[in-house]
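Sequence in, structure out. First:
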Amino acid sequence: MGNHTPKEEEKDVIESVMYNYATSVPELEDENKMLRQSVESLKKELDRFRKTPLLVCEVRDVLTEGVLVRLQNGNSFLVDVSNDCEPLVPGDQVLAEQKNLTILKKITTSSKFDVEKFVIIERPSTTWVEVGGLAYQIEEIKEVIELPLKKPELFKKIGITPPKGILLYGPPGTGKTLLAKAVANSTKSTFIEIAGSELVQKFIGEGAKLVKEIFDLAKAKSPSIIFIDELDAIASVRVDVGTSGEREVQRTFMQLLSELDGFKNLDNVKVIGCTNRKDIIDPAV
């Protein structure tokens, strides 16, 4: 090295720098490629965040003028359909623009009932042996609930319609829920428990829809027993009311009566209502 002339030393330095540069170029190119991909990904994510969210609607009817849809808040509108959207039928769930509610596409929703997040579904292990001091009540509930579920052919043979449900009333802690769980275990039925207060919803028609879904769920999981605790929350004596909240409670109650007294057969579904205020329960129950 000491014998090299200044020009040779300068040449060695230049060659060393060029070598280092040449070896680092592929690494820099790879890093540059990764950074470009990262930038593109961030741009796409930013564009996605800037998009106006779409509304989820339910198709109520398909008409020549357009499609009648219902929003989550209960309002209904007649809207247009995008040319790219597949054919629609009542009951379909669709995505619509926020500004003009034009339907863009149909979506597939889960077959799981929405109501399942409100109710407790189980197969109780409670037996009649665990229910003490209620011999008369046990006999009554066996005749009204257990017998029709275990031996429906007896009622068909006689030609009578079995009771659709029973009302249990009394102070808290007297065994009403225990009786309901015992008969569910005895009949090997699905036990669907919900509080009456949970059926009171904010938006118009939501409570009635919830009641309908509960009965649809019960039929899908039959034999089943629907246990409505605090029934007085929705089934109190009807009076002339002025507030929207009280009218909504009455709509929910009317849907419950429709399910109980309607033309559709409940088959292997029984209803047990529970309250500690029998004095305010509507006589229609």
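Second:
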Amino acid sequence: MKKLLILSVALGSLSSAAAAQNNELHVYNWSDYIAEDTIAKFEAETGI
């Protein structure tokens, strides 16, 4: 179980590093948890 957790964290960090190079941010969240205009505001403020 501990090895699986370590593997998951390692793979997660690698995938987030690859996403950073593409100037993309992936947000995994429950539906209807973020307001519809939040993403547009974030993109306008950060340029991502």
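Remark: The CA atoms of residues 13 and 44 lie 26 Å apart.
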